[in-house]
Amino acid sequence: MVDADEEAVDGAETAVAISHRLSQSSPASAVRFSCDGRTYCSQMTSCAEATYFLKNCPGTKMDGNRDGVPCEQQWCG
């Protein structure tokens, strides 16, 4: 028979295990970008940011030769 204290411990251990797995799959150091209206390479600060904008934000003007690589002269070349 399991008492309430043992169930609480098991639940806490499970929560810790889940939290650990989530932290492993999405590191806290990961950079988060969001579409904010910028459209040009001159407005970007990295290749990663330009790539995010090209793939996720409408109206970008960062891939003149349409090869899927943004800002080749400034950031991703």
Overview of this protein structure:
- There is one protein chain.
- The longest helix is centred in the N-terminal third of the chain and has 22 residues, at 4-25.
- This protein has helices at residues 4-25, 47-56.
- The chain is globular.
- Mean pLDDT is 76; it is low at 6-26.
- It has 77 residues and is mainly alpha-helical.
Show the helix and strand layout.
Layout: H1 4-25, H2 47-56
Globally, the shape reads: globular
Structural class by helix and strand composition: mainly alpha
Q: Could you state the oligomeric state of the chains shown?
A: single chain
Q: How much of the residues is beta strand, in percent? A: under 5%
Largest sheet: none
Radius of gyration: 22 Å
Helix content: 40-55%
Summed over residues and divided by their number, the pLDDT gives a mean of: 76
The parts where pLDDT drops under 50 for at least 5 residues are 6-26
Distance between the termini: 65 Å
Q: Could you tell me the number of beta strands?
A: 0
Put simply, the count of helices is: 2
SSE ordering: HH
